[in-house]
Amino acid sequence: MLDLVVKQGIQATPMSQVVKQSGVAAGTIYHHFASKEEIINELYLNLKKEFGSTLSNQVDLNTSYKTQFFQIWTNLYDYFCENETAFHFAEQIGHCTMITPETKQKGELYYLPVIEFFANGIAQNQLREMDLKLMSNLIYGNVVTAVQLTLSGELIMTKDRLQTVIQSSWDSVAKHN
Q1: DSSP symbol at 30
Q2: What Rg value do the Cα atoms of the chain yield, rounded?
Q3: Which of 8, 40, 49, 92 has the CB geometry, 3.0–4.6 Å to 12, for a possible disulfide?
Q4: pTM above 0.90, yes or no
Q5: Distance CA 76, CA 5 (A)
Q6: pLDDT tens digits for 13-47?
């Protein structure tokens, strides 16, 4: 279903096509999911879980706060570049009314370690005082822009360019003493 939604959009993907492409009987699908909306919400949660676990992957807590920030940013960028379908699905579904408030709330739980990382950065005077939702969305927007440019082929993202983008993201939230 993920591939179909990315290629066609949510509304243009009928359940009959999902059944046909999956090779599973409609009754089996409806035994596990009550509706297309429920499947979309479950896909959303699964991706949020993957994104959340990806963020803190290989982050060395013995390095500087800024180094950890750069690693978290790079982790999400790399994940999206390596999982293009997941990236496009996340972009399509991010503000979709089909995702229930309860599902969004559950999805946010997977990001708690990163939100806590930002809160600790504020407490340690590493990051400026800012609403955590605003901060995380500002940083996420920078990652998305870099991924879009990379995946579209509009820009070859060299290591130096990537470091410049991450530095710009850091500069937008870092506390400058």
Answers
A1: H
A2: 18
A3: 8
A4: no
A5: 22
A6: 777 777 778 777 777 777 778 788 888 888 899 99
